[in-house]
Automatic annotation (TrEMBL), chain A:
It comes from the Bacteria. The lineage of its organism: Bacteria, Bacillati, Bacillota, Bacilli, Bacillales. It comes from Peribacillus glennii. This is Uncharacterized protein.
Automatic annotation (TrEMBL), chain B:
Keywords: Transferase. The keyword Transferase applies. Pfam families: Amidase. This is Asp-tRNA(Asn)/Glu-tRNA(Gln) amidotransferase GatCAB subunit A. Gene3D superfamilies: Amidase signature (AS) domain. InterPro entries: Amidase, Amidase_CS, Amidase_dom, AS_sf. Transmembrane segments: none annotated. Residues 26-449 form the Amidase domain. Belongs to the amidase family.
């Protein structure tokens, strides 16, 4: 887990200070808990609600 | 006398300035005297523009004396959050990276206030890049809560909240992406209004999270919030999220009559795991509204159970996208807490971001159908009282919980849905104000303001406000 977090960030050329690694892991665990509820829900009726404006939005 | 003048609201000052009983110079000096007395303790200002403010006030005085009164904000001194652009002036965003950034245009809200003849006394402190809710800023120092200097003022617009509460500005503007207007309003015992997304242009405001950001008033009274909303609203083609909807005369339609108003209460989400002093105070205020003739309806909004995920994913990823280049080239120049959050946002996948947007749409639709049955939804603004500066946890009924996890629990849904939401103080516990949140349907700010106005008339704080005189002399 620790390696994965560091690998993802280093892969983006972002240096992670040593003292951030444990808190990042804890935050990630909390995030996975929240995600569990989301994964259990079906959103078939809801798209992401973005609107595309053909021709751009600056007339 | 000067302190009394600086303590007045816009509504109280307007007729005095208009009929020339007092000069904008007197009011500006009174506000600046408070800045001299208190800001050493509170640290609400990043930059104090004393001479420029007095010059502008003198100019306003001449205009008014010559019969060129511009309107209700003419000659009113205000300081704004240092994230709004003023042409040819520095805007630091509370950061080291942008400490010397000079904007080459006025933010739309700044331009509107300039047209009204507002006097600007300086730039206010904030959480770095608005990415946090404590205003414990590593580059400009922590802002302190005027009610208790050992406590946070909330954030990210903590300088605005503290300056309004300590009469170091007559009113202010904040920005709100997860609660950054309402959280400091709650902690500092003032009014904070996040309008409907798109109501006030964000052109010239440095973004935190494009789809969640809002600008709104932070004021001493509900009338002042209505006045600033009325002044600053309107379609702006320079802001792609600006809404082309009619601007209402919010001050004219302001009413404290709540007879027949339907107030929604959602027990499962908004009254779950709340400090019992906060819960009791908010429920008491709701009872008072019921006595005035409002009807209470219990509502269910199931998608709220997913809103923390939606808010967390949207805000962290959008913020990390905005700051990505600086995270690669100079991450050491961010404050440690902001750097941490920006690292976290880089970890979340595009799939999860899109799931968050699905949740957002579901939540918006559920709120929309709920608001067909109710006029407003009332909840606590925060589930806790303002913690000590530097604390990472909050105490909720004896349990120590992560500040980060708790702080935007009740305010975040307003950002995800874009619905208007206002925080008003409803009680004091342990010497600290408690905020009550009123949410409304899209572009129905008048209903939110009316319920707030009715609460304000009840004088639930019994006239108490932050008093720094003892802190300064001791």
């Amino acid at each position: 887990m620790e390696n994965e977090i560091v690998k993802v960030l280093e892969g983006k050329n972002i240096k992670v200070p040593e003292h951030h690694i444990q808190p990042l892991m804890a935050q990630w665990q909390g995030y996975l808990q929240l995600k569990k509820n989301v994964d259990a829900v079906k959103h078939a009726d809801f798209d992401i609600g973005l609107k595309h404006v053909p021709g751009g939005d600056r007339q | 006398m000067n302190q009394e003048l600086a303590a007045k609201s816009i509504q109280e000052l307007t007729p005095l300035i208009r009929d020339k009983s007092i000069s904008p110079v007197e009011v500006t000096r009174a506000v600046l005297e408070n800045v001299d007395s208190y800001d050493g303790q509170v640290n609400a200002y990043i930059e104090i523009e004393k001479e420029k403010a007095i010059e502008s006030a003198k100019h306003a005085e001449v205009e008014i004396m010559n019969g060129n009164y511009r309107g209700r904000l003419h000659g009113i001194p205000m300081a704004l959050k240092d994230i709004l652009y003023f042409k040819n002036e520095k805007a630091t965003m509370g950061s080291k990276i942008h400490k010397d950034f000079v904007a080459d245009y006025d933010a739309t809200v700044v331009s509107k206030l300039k047209d009204e003849g507002t006097i600007f006394t300086g730039k206010l402190n904030m959480h770095e890049y608005a990415w946090g809710a404590t205003t414990t800023n590593p580059h400009f120092g922590a802002t302190r809560n005027p009610w208790d200097l050992s406590k946070i003022p909330g954030g990210s617009s903590g300088g605005s909240g503290a300056a309004v509460a300590s009469d170091m500005t007559i009113a202010s503007l904040g920005t709100d992406t997860g609660g950054s207007i309402r959280i400091p309003a709650s902690c500092c015992g003032i009014i904070g209004l996040k309008p409907t997304h798109g109501r006030i242009s964000k052109h010239g405001c440095f973004p935190l999270s494009w789809s969640l950001d809002h600008i709104g008033p932070m004021t001493k009274t509900v009338y002042d919030a209505a006045l600033l909303l009325e002044t600053l609203s309107g379609y702006d083609p320079q802001d792609p999220t600006s809404a082309d909807v009619p601007v209402k005369n919010f001050t004219e339609i302001l009413s404290d009559d709540v007879k027949g108003t339907v107030i929604g209460i959602n027990e499962e989400y908004f009254f779950n795991n709340v400090d019992r002093r906060v819960e009791e105070s908010v429920r008491k205020a709701i009872l008072e509204l019921e006595k005035l003739g409002a009807n209470i309806e219990i509502v269910k909004i199931p998608a709220l159970a997913l809103s923390e995920f939606g808010e967390l994913v949207t805000i962290t990823t959008e913020a990390s996208a905005i700051h990505h280049d600086n995270m690669v080239s100079q991450s050491e120049n961010f404050g440690d807490d902001v750097r941490f959050l920006l690292e976290f946002g880089e970890l979340i996948s595009a799939v999860d971001y899109l799931k968050a947007q699905q949740i957002r749409r579901q939540l918006s639709n559920e709120f929309a159908s709920t608001f067909k049955r109710i006029d407003v939804l009332i909840s606590p603004t925060l589930p806790f009282l303002a913690p000590n500066i530097g604390e990472q946890t909050v105490d909720i009924n004896g349990e120590q919980l992560s500040f980060l996890d708790q702080v935007i629990r009740f305010t975040g849904p307003g950002n995800l849905t874009g619905l208007p939401a206002l925080s008003i103080p409803c009680a004091i516990a342990d010497g600290l104000p408690i905020g009550l949140q009123i949410m409304g349907a899209a572009f129905k700010e008048e209903k939110v303001l009316n319920v707030a106005y009715a609460l304000e008339k009840l004088n639930l704080l019994k006239g108490r406000k932050a008093d720094l005189r003892g802190a300064v002399s001791s």
